[in-house]
Amino acid sequence: QVALEESGGGSVEAGGSLTLSCRASSFINRRACMGWFRQAPGKEREGVATIHSDGSTSYADSTKGRFTLSKDNGKNTLYLQMNSLKLEDTAMYYCAATGRRLYSCRLKSNEYRYWGQGTQVTVSS
C-alpha cells in the first residue's frame, strides 16, 4: 500500500495560512527522518523542513519563521503549518521519509526513500 498520504493542500491568498498533513503507514520506520519537499513547474525539487525522531527540526532558509513542522506519534501523522504564505511558495508539496534512522535529517531529497503522491499548494495575490 501507499507509504505516505498527504492532505490539506489548496489555494490561498498571499499572507494566508494552510496546514498540510501526512499520514505514515506501518512501513515507515518509527525512527526515520520525515519531512516535506516541494517542486514548482520547471524547477528542481527543494527541501522545506525535516524532523528527527527525537523531535529536532530543520528548515529551509526561505521558510524559517513562517513554517512549523510537527509530528503526532500517536496518529503516525506529520504536519506542516504554513503561515504568511508567499507567491513563491506555490508548488506541489511532497511528504517523505527515510528508510532508516539517520544521525541528522538533512534537506536532501536523495536521502529519502519513501514519497507521497503530493498535494498542491497555490498562493495567489
Largest sheet: 7 strands, mixed
Helix and strand composition category: mainly beta
* Unreliable runs: none
Put simply, the count of helices is 0
Instruction: Estimate the mean pLDDT confidence.
Output: 96
Q: Give the DSSP E fraction (strand runs of 2 or more residues).
A: over 45%
- Roughly how much helix do the residues carry, as a percent range? under 10%
Overall geometric form: globular
Ends apart, CA distance between termini: 38 Å
The Rg value, from CA coordinates, equals 13 Å
H/E series: EEEEEEEEEEE
Q: Would you report the number of β strands?
A: 11
Task: Please explain how this structure is put together.
The protein is mainly β and 125 residues long. Helix content is 0%, strand content 46%. The strands form two sheets. Strands 2, 4, 5, 6, 9, 10 and 11 form a seven-stranded mixed β-sheet that branches. It is globular.
SSE blueprint:
Blueprint: E1 4-7, E2 10-13, E3 18-24, E4 34-39, E5 46-51, E6 57-59, E7 67-72, E8 77-82, E9 91-97, E10 114-115, E11 119-124
Parallel strand pairs: 2-11
Antiparallel strand pairs: 1-3, 3-8, 4-5, 4-9, 5-6, 7-8, 9-10, 9-11
Defining key terms:
single chain; about 120 residues; mainly beta; 7-stranded mixed β-sheet; 4-stranded antiparallel β-sheet
Give a short overview:
It contains no helices and eleven strands. With about 120 residues, it is mainly beta. The strands form two sheets. Strands 2, 4, 5, 6, 9, 10 and 11 form a seven-stranded mixed sheet that branches. The chain has a four-stranded antiparallel sheet with strand order 1-3-8-7, with no helix packed on it.
